[in-house]
Each structure stands twice: as C-alpha cells, then as structure tokens.
Specification:
The complex is a heterodimer of chains A (64) and B (520). Chain A has 64 residues and is mainly alpha-helical. Chain A contains four helices and one strand, in the order H-H-H-H-E. By secondary structure, chain B is mainly α. In chain B, 69% of the residues lie in helices and 6% in strands. Chain B has 20 helices and seven strands. In chain B, the strands form three sheets. Chain B has a two-stranded antiparallel ribbon. Chain B has a two-stranded antiparallel sheet with strand order 4-5. Chain B is globular. The termini of chain B are far apart. The chains are: A mainly alpha (64), B mainly alpha (520). At the A-B interface, helix 1, helix 2, helix 3, helix 4 and strand 1 of A face strand 1, helix 2, helix 3, helix 4 and helix 5 of B. Strand 1 of chain A pairs parallel with strand 1 of chain B.
C-alpha cells in the first residue's frame, strides 16, 4: 500500500527507481547469467565431487 | 605434479574484487551513519513538535534515499565473485561465510525493505510515533546487516571457532559464539560502524557549511550542524579508541601486517612510532637497508607503548618474522613453510589413500587431522606450504601501500576529531558560521572520510596478503582457474557500470542539495 501510493505521488524519485531497475537488470540478468556462474554448482552434481575437485586444487597449487 | 597458475589471473581477480568492494564501500558507510542521524533528528521532531525539525529530517532522508537507492545490492556482486572467481575459497570457508551472509540477506531484506517504505512514504499516513519507530528500525536493520559480513571478514583475519574437515576440504563451525564474538569481530564491527557514523557526520556538517557559505537555509544548517557535530565527536572518539585496540590486536594476531604498516624491518624494544614519513622506492628487499625513509618524524618509544603499554616491549620487524628470532621465540618462515608443506602433503596422501581404497593408510593419516598437537604444529601453518621453493618476499605484503594507508587513515582521523570538536564548540556558542574559512574547511572535508575509510580497508585486506584466510589459504590457492581474459573483461564492465552509477549519484545528489530543504 505504501509502495503503491508512494510511487504514484513520486516526482524526482522516479529517476532513482529507473536507475535501481536498470542496475538490477544488468546485475542479475546480464552479469549473473552470462559472466558469473557458480563454478562448483555448475560443473559438479554432488558435494562429494566438489570436495574432490577442491582437494585436488588446493593440494596442487603453485604459481609460475 | 605441481599445477601452475598464471599470476596475471591472480592480479586481475584481486583487482576485480578490490574494485567492486571499494565501489560498494562508497555507499555503505553513508547509509549506516546517516540512518542514525536521521533517526535522532526525527526523534527531536517528535519530542518537540517543531516543524523545522521535520523539514530537517526530510532533507537528510532525501540524501539518504539517493545514496541507498544507488548503492543498494552492489554488494551482491561480491557474492557472485565468490562463486565464480574464488570458488576454492568459497568451498574452503564453508558455512563460516554461508551462514552469516544468509542471515545478512534475510535481515536486510525484511527489516530494511519493510520499514524503509514506511520511512519514505509514510509521512502523514501513519502516526508520528510509528513513523519514528520505522526510521529507527531502518537504521538498526541497516547496521545489523553489516554485522554479519564483518564477522565473516574478521574470521578471515583470525580464523577461530572452526575445525578443518580433510574429507570435505571445508572448515566447519565448532562454536558459533567463538566466531561471532571473537575479539577481532567485535572490534572490527565497532571500528567500522563508528567510522561510518563519523563519515556521515562530516557529510552533514560539510553540506550544512555549503548552505551557510551561501547564506541560505541558515537555521536549518545550524541545527543540522549541532546534530552532526555531537554525533561526530562521539563517533570520532570511539573510532580512535577502537582503532587503537585494533592496532594492538593486529600486532598480536598479524605481526607481519603490523610491521608493514609501520615499515619496521628490524624489530626492537623502545620502538618509535612514525607519525609522518616518505618511503624510498624499493621496500621489498629483505634484509632491507635500515634507511627506508627519505624523511620521517617519529615519537620515541610510542610503538612499543602502543602494543605492550610499556616502552620496553619488543616489536618484531619484517626481518625478524621472515628469518626468525630465537631470542624472542619467533619461528622463521622456512620452518613454517616446511611444516605447511608437510600438512599439504598429508592432505594429498589422504586423498590418494581414499581414492585407491587403502583403509589402513587412510586411517593413519586421518588420525593426524584428529590430533590437536599435529594440527597446531603443522596444519596451523598450512598456507605457508604453498611457498616451498618460492621467494620469501612473496610472504611480505606491500609495505609502502600498508604504510601510507595506515598513516593517511590516522592523520585524517585526527583532522576529523579536531573539526567536529570545533564545529560543536562554536555551534553551542552560536558562532559556527562566523568564520568563513572554517566553513570552507568543513565543505572541502566532505570527500576525506571516504579516503580514510577506503584506506582502512586497504590496510585490512592488503595487509593480510598473501593470505585470504590468515596463514591457512593464500590467494594463489583460493582463486578459480579461469582465463585471465575473462576476468579482465568483467573488470572493465564493472568499471564502466560503476563509473556511470557514481556519476549518477553525484549528479542527483548535487541537484537535490542545491535545491535545499523543502520550503516551509
């Protein structure tokens, strides 16, 4: 109710909401979907596989 | 077999995280501090019934709203990065990060989004007291939601209350209260929150000075300055006190960070505190020539006194920490590296034994991880094992950056205390505004608390390097093996997006400030 009436009477705040919506679109629809997958969730089906992978990684790390 | 990681991947991943964290931190401290200042202003309005205080509250609420709207959910990007760029780290820290961040998300959503609607849209629609309660609950909710991420960060600085599970490669919480109420967590929360209150106070005093310089909205500006300066003096004193406690804690828990922030290479008793100084270019060599400074001004004994509350306390330098100091009982890094390497090798053998179904070998290796003595002697140095056959200087954080970050923060902190005390004193005598130069100082000070606050975070995070989780997980093992090009691409996307948002914030905010408070 507050939101509905508030939005109706809003003046300069409308541009703020436009910024919020554009920002959320960029973050969740573009960045999250195309650039920021959760690697371990995406690549592996179970926690056991994820543990196995991370153990492999942290016991075989070094830099060039 | 040793898998290699391109160091440019680490550098770009760190740069990307630093960019998003620092951008997020432009908005957060103002939200935290201004929410309470608004609550105090509205409390005065409700108690006195004076409409001028309602006008004052509504103006600062507008500034709060702009900042909140542009900054809201920029922190979510950090969580995206945990899953994509720092997947080993995300897995390794387990529920230590997951639980606090989940609580933060729920609290932030329910408390802030519910009460913020009443706060902005509820004027004249709900009772004065209900509106005031909503303003206070928004402030409390915003500040409480910051608790959790700060607790998680404190754990990264000083991992306590957890146990490493070698089967899952995860740290498991053994005692929630040890994590939540660790000395590091409590101090970090108080220091961060009060420094944010100080930042918001200086913004209120600075913008009010702008109105006084233009001789507009004078009563509004003077009253705002009174609230801002009372809030500012208290916040400055608590920030300095918690900063002092924090430095002592760093000296005990993270001696390398402490040595780096003072650029102390050779440990000593009666160690002096560098008040101000300029460093020479090469600060990474160890042993380092004694003359690291082009010039410096020191207070004799002050560093030893700061840490031990006695001038005779020995403050270890970078050389003592790297090469050890038998007399002071400091273990050399070479020994820590050997012990850490053994812990890594044991974990690797454990995995191999499990993979080939060698139960006897597996049980004997698991027994080591169940043995507190072995864990204290070897696993406690796990991260050092990655530096076997690596140059020791990789275990030293960037000395120059730490030194300057620390000193910029402290010097600016003193400036803020002096300014808020003068503003309060002159406001109470109704003389604030008589000296134009002071108003200019207040106005020009507006960006400085951000500089100090960001410098504080640079010190906290860069000073912890090379560790992501202190002494357990270095950056090189925390990072996800992505292509450096992919990380670079997202870095530039963020930079473009954030710059646009920042420009929008400045533009909208300056427009609204120029308009000033609503007419009576």
């Amino acid at each position: 109710m507050f939101y509905y009436q508030g939005f109706k009477t809003m003046t300069w705040g409308k541009s703020l909401w436009a910024i919020i919506l554009i920002k959320l679109f960029i973050m969740f629809v573009i960045l999250k979907v195309f650039f920021f997958p959760d690697i371990l969730q995406k690549e592996f089906d179970s926690d056991a596989e994820r543990s196995n992978y991370v153990l492999e990684q942290i016991t075989n790390s070094n830099t060039k | 077999m040793i898998e290699s990681i391109d160091t440019s991947l680490i550098d770009w991943s760190r740069a990307q995280f630093a960019l998003t964290a620092m951008f997020h931190w432009i908005f957060v401290p103002l939200t935290l501090g201004l929410s309470f200042i608004i609550a105090f202003m509205e409390t005065i309005y409700v108690r006195t019934g004076n409409e001028e205080w309602k006008r004052i509250t509504r103006f600062w609420m507008k500034i709060f709203g702009i900042n909140f709207a542009i900054g809201v959910s920029t922190g979510i990007i950090l969580e995206f990065e945990f899953g994509t760029n720092w997947s080993n780290y995300s897995w390794f820290v387990g529920d230590i990060f997951g639980a606090p961040l989940a609580i933060e998300g729920i609290m932030a959503f329910f408390m802030e989004s519910t009460f913020i609607a009443v706060m902005f849209f509820g004027w004249n629609k709900v009772s004065k007291r209900f509106h005031l309660a909503s303003t206070w609950l928004t402030a409390i909710g915003a500040n409480l939601s910051a608790v959790w991420i700060l607790v998680a960060n404190a754990w990264m600085q000083n991992p306590v209350g957890t146990m490493f599970n070698p089967e899952t490669a995860r740290n498991e919480m053994t005692n929630f209260w040890d994590v939540f109420l660790s000395d590091m967590a409590v101090n970090k929360f108080l220091h961060t929150i009060t420094s944010s209150f100080l930042l918001a106070s200086l913004v209120v005093i600075g913008i009010s000075a702008y109105f006084l310089l233009r001789n507009k909205h004078v009563l509004f500006a003077k009253r705002s300055t009174v609230v801002g300066s009372v809030f500012g003096v208290i916040a400055a004193l608590v920030t300095i006190f918690t900063g002092d406690t924090s430095a002592r804690m760093v000296a005990q828990k993270q001696p390398m960070k402490f040595a780096a922030m003072e650029a102390l290479y050779e440990g000593q008793t009666h160690a002096p505190l560098v008040v101000i100084g300029a460093m020479r270019t090469d600060t990474t060599r160890i042993p380092n020539p004694r003359e690291n400074f082009i010039f410096k001004f020191e207070i004799p004994n002050a560093l030893s006194y700061m840490v031990f509350l006695t001038p005779s306390g020995f403050v270890p330098g970078i050389t003592d920490l790297v090469y050890g100091n038998e007399e002071q009982g400091i273990m050399p890094y070479s020994e820590k590296i050997d012990r850490g390497a053994e812990a890594i090798a044991t974990l690797k053998d454990l995995k191999k034994a499990k993979d080939r179904g060698d139960q006897a070998r597996y049980a004997s290796l698991m027994a080591k991880f169940d043995n507190n003595e072995w864990m204290g002697e070897h696993y406690a140095h796990f991260g050092y094992g990655y530096y076997k056959n690596r140059p020791l200087k990789e275990l030293i954080p960037n000395v120059k950056l730490n030194f300057y970050s620390f000193h910029i923060m402290v010097i600016l902190g003193m400036h803020f205390l002096i300014l808020t005390v003068i503003a309060l004193y002159l406001s109470l005598k109704n003389k604030w505004g008589n000296h134009k130069w002071l108003l200019w100082v207040a106005l020009l000070t507006i960006p400085l608390p951000w500089v100090a606050s960001q410098a504080g975070w640079v010190l906290a995070e860069v000073g912890r390097q090379p560790w992501v989780v202190y002494e357990l997980m270095p950056t090189i093992s925390a990072v996800t093996r992505l292509s450096p090009g992919a990380v670079q691409l997202t870095f530039w996307i963020f930079l473009a997006t954030f710059t646009t948002l920042f420009i929008a914030e400045i533009k909208i905010m300056t427009t609204q400030i120029k308009k000033g408070p609503e007419e009576k």
